[in-house]
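Schema walk-through. Below, the input block comes first and the output block second. Nothing else is stored per chain. Lengths vary across the set, and this one has 185 residues.
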Amino acid sequence: MKLVLCSASPRRREFLERLGVRFSVAPAHIDETRRPGEPAIAYVTRMALEKSAAGARPGFAALGADTIVVKDEEVLGKPSDRSEAERMLRLLSGGEHRVITAVAIAGMQAMVVITFVKLAELSDAQIRWLAASGDGDDKAGAYALQGLAGAFVERIEGSYSNVVGLPLLETIRLLEKAGVELPWT
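--- output ---
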């Protein structure tokens, strides 16, 4: 079974490449609007399932994934501008939040991974610097664990790769279940 990655995320692509998985890329273009009252886990799961369904085609396992950051039940996606990035970083500063990723292969049940991250208390200057750097522009919660903001992470409980954007262990299990050829098979 061949794999198609239904994502434009360079991090997801890099993870799969480092594992030696052969795949093609076909980003899914779907409406990513959260429904009124939709719980965070239901939302991220629906996104992963819809992305994988959008890329489904015969002979291919279509892999979709979505990552969100949740703080006090507020879902933080990608910031639309520097002002929003600063607001998100202020919200995350000094507290713990959840990074939730759902991974799905078309026609299969999605897997959800939750990681807890504790960010140090950030000064206004640090928040402005992080937002102005652009490092978190295309990342949920306006930060990248593997980027500049990683210097301010006090603790991570759970999957590191989940916070970066693709929980590898769970993804490998899904790929194996779908019959995708992996380097060790």
